[in-house]
Amino acid sequence: MPRIKRELYNKEICACSIFGAMNRDGERFNGAGVMKAIANMHVRGNGLGGGFAAYGIYPEYKDYYAFHLMFTGKTPEDMRSAKLVFDAFLCENFDVVFDEEIPHSDVKEVSDPPLIWRYFVLPRKQGEETLLSDEDFIVKMIMWVNTRIENAHVFSSGKNMGCFKGVGYPEDIGEYFMLDKLYSAYTWTVHGRFPTNTQAWWGGAHPFSLLDTTVVHNGEISSYGTNRWYLEMYGYACTLQTDTEVIAYAADLLMRRQSIPIEIVAKILAPPIWNSIDRMNEKEKKLLTTLRMVYGPLLMNGPFAIIIGQTGKMIGLTDRIRLRPITAATRGEMFYLSSEEASIRLISPELDSVWTPNGGEPVVGELNNMRTVL
Amino acid sequence: MKSFVFPEFQIIRDEEKCGQCRGCERQCSFGTHTYDPLTDRLISDDYKCAGCQRCVIFCPKDAIVIRPTQSFYRPNASWSREKIEDLKKQAETGGVILTGCGNDKPFRIYWDHIVLNASQVTNPSIDPLREPMELRTFLGAKPDLMDIEAKGGDVEIKTKISPNLMVETPILFSAMSYGAISYNAFRSLATAARQSGTFFNTGEGGLPKEMRQEFGKCAIVQVASGRFGIDAEYLNCASAVEIKVGQGAKPGIGGHLPGEKVSLEVAATRMIPVGTDAISPAPHHDIYSIEDLSMLITALKEATNYEKPISVKIAAVHNFAAIGSGIVRAGADIIAIDGLRGGTGAAPKAIRDNVGIPIELAISGLDRRLKNEGIRNRCSIIAAGGIRCSADVIKAIALGADAVYIGSAALIAMGCTLCQKCYTGKCNWGICTQDPRLSGRLNVDIASQRLSNLIHAWSHEISEMLGGMGINALESLRGNRDHLRGVGLHEWELEVLGIKGAGE
Amino acid sequence: MSVTPPSEERGNGMTGSVEIDAGPLETRELNDQLWDLMLAGIQKVVIRNVCGQRYIGTRLYSPEHRKMEIEIFGTPGNDLAAFLYGHKITVHGNAQDGVGNTMDQGEIVVEGRAGDVLGFSMRGGKIFVRDNCGYRTALHMKEYEDKRPVLVIGGTSQDFLGEYMAGGIVILLDLYGKSHKGNFMGTGMHGGAIYLRGVVEKEQVGNQVEISLLDELDREILDRYVSEFIERFPDLGLSKEEILKDEFVKLAPKSKRPYSKIYAY
Fold this sequence. Notes:
The complex is a heterotrimer. Chain A is an alpha+beta fold. Chain A is built from 11 helices and 18 strands. The longest helix of chain A has 18 residues, at 76-93. Chain B folds into 2 domains: 9-95, Alpha-Beta Plaits, CATH 3.30.70.20; 137-142 and 157-501, TIM Barrel (Alpha-Beta Barrel), CATH 3.20.20. In chain B, helix 4 packs across helix 15 (444-468) and helix 12 (390-399) packs across helix 15 (444-468). Chain B is globular. The mean pLDDT of chain B is 91. Chain B is α/β, with parallel strands linked by helices. Strand 5 (96-99) of chain B pairs parallel with strand 13 (263-264) of chain C.
């Protein structure tokens, strides 16, 4: 008699190094500096994953959504057939302005890469879908692709930005995608990974992204199971087997769909202890009590340090008792976040200020003038 | 507040046999027996009795019988006597129920559902009394491949080999700190380890300075979350350093040595004030994520000039396989994994009895996971948590461990009767106490002899069983689950253990 | 690696100082070099272009108790001087997490800030940090009789200062006027003392901690270690009198057994 296969999700523990650099005047720079910085934190990773998010890299296509796709599979044929299925789906639901393979160079440390492609698209909503906003429509489509089309994964989907990631040390991934040569961005975030799961697969590397929100994460979310079911109720499918996914979706849910400012979102993801809340003034006490009551299932428990990237913003946040390190620094218009200060010093030996933010308190870098990128 | 709790033990004294020698009064540290000069009789207070059987063994006339009292409540399958009385104690004190030793609840014992193979006809069995039987094991990281150069008749190994521990038998003494156990008990373990060619683990109480020269070479020293007694000399005098992340008796919570047990010497070794509670926090406060562990492992390698294997001890919890894999990748040479039945000197009963998983189920999973990832050779696995006999040892190795740690078994060898009152510091057997009047009862020469006897006896039995399987070297059994079969197990259990059912 | 003539700053006739350029070196290579230098009897080393290399000074255990002076230019990586056994290390810059982790003896001077778990499980020796430090400073610091670690910080600390502290002296001077904003100070403290220049609220400290004013003995301790702090950071141009004339509070455990009441026996 065949055994009933019990569905148990596999959660990986994700520990690592993170780094972010932003030019608040919107001036763009190539990826060489951040590649050097993350390489300096080489020992925090184990070569089983690395990735970058870059904002402002597609100025000529800035009005279109840039989809980055990963087609995995055991053989190139598997990858190509996945692409065929995806292409058919894409053409039905989107207008495709331009598409090509994402250029890459040969790096011997990076092996068995999947087929990676980018498409610049606009949504083509039909029937009931016209009631949805462009972005809700796109999220819906992405969840569909990631759950229904085998071997196809959308890993980046914002405008004028993109994620680049894979299995290997992040500096090698950077070289693979030629991030120091081909791209200029006003914000870069990077991640070097130390996963404890066997299949280090390309889709499992950070950043995790949805539309223009990207997350790189250091730590482990012990509340993952709870966060996951809550988000699944809102239409997010947690398919990538990594706890970081829930942060990206939570950020999308709270910041984009519900337009909650980041200072409040931080109080949802990393709320103060009840002891502190009870001692606050009436107004604050009411707000925080309500947030915890309603968004309790989104409390991210466990150690974490995250860098959230969005168009025009870079945000650093740690868990409420700061179990993971993060250092913030500024030099003129440059704003840096890093797991270790030394990496910042490597690319900017002089700094105007350096500090370690408190747990649960976000540190936000914003463009001085949003018009430079929109 | 009047206590509503019944005495756990009933003392029955045969007044005809009793000669009023008052030996029982002297033996008992709980004040159970008192001599009444008016009636020339020994009076016993059942409420004070811990059931440790010391007075029974030492009564010259065998006049005392002490047995657990039967429950006086109406029989109730859900509300057992223990559940009712623990609840009452909590109502009386508002406190957490404390206990000692390992989990005593009737969780399934997988050792007793696994049977071993023996060879007949198709494969000859080996008689250990006549032919060599090798139990020697090396614990540590082994390289993936070796670079060997042969020039003429000369062979040179070019690959640098990581430091390993050599044990003559796969049984090591588990971590029991000086502080939790007495100096005499601690020294007995060290002496027996040296005699039997194995190692003892200092636990988190440090290694007293006067013992370092003599016993350092057979010591595995622990770096636990309280960082007690750690200086560079401590690290360098030992043969291996173990980072204690957790233990089977109380996964996820810290250790607690009550102030009663922090004597002058214990305080000196641990570097804390006399009489203070020695608290080891639950996490290492410099390990909040896997890369921090990697950092500490490397820091210890640096501090010991890369000459000693570094071990990491964890409790067997639900995601042990992922944690174990991470630990190997973080650079550990040995993983010690402690299961649900692991013992302790003090733990909240709720944690001891409910948190963690049986070690049998963890060993196989960890071994297979590391093999699937191709990194099994990078570390050795030591299994612990309620190993009771040589058959358990051999089954542990067949499931995938390199060696086992014994804790409770070692204490029983020295006289322990598992009365679970270790936390009081009043151990009448002189094992888990700092009271010199009590610890003086444990003679180091005799106790270490008893421990060596145990190791010797088990090693012999293991040799017999190995020979019976047609194997004459332990490494041919490690992870060789084909020599095991399950009896009376569900299919999922067979799958988790990675063994077939008997008859398959 | 180059050998320079004996240093003139500390003229006590040593065997010469050595410079190392750490720019191209990994952690292991740098520490291998320091080890070789120690065995060769070198007593003073200057390391330049340090950027994230870890455990500097950890390897240098010698049963003969050799003492070295190491100057670091740059940003040393985590676990600087972990398990330090008697050397003196000066950092001309900021330090990261784990400075003086389980340090046994010696001295560390940081001309800048330090990160998290500064002086974790420290058991002897002294650390002086000019600016601020991060979370969990002096966690489980311990002492025994006259072996008493000292940690002096010029700025302030973040949460969980002195968690599980079992001994030792921690002094926070708040020279830059930011006020002590950390919470959960001294949670689980059962030994040692923390001196803060300025004030703290009762809610900021653990239940087991008593806030008190200074007595004669406390003032002597502060006098001594504030003087030593000023000597190490002459560029701050401070005077001991200026600092000591202000209000200080002392945090100490109420009892040696903060958890004696939570079990049912």
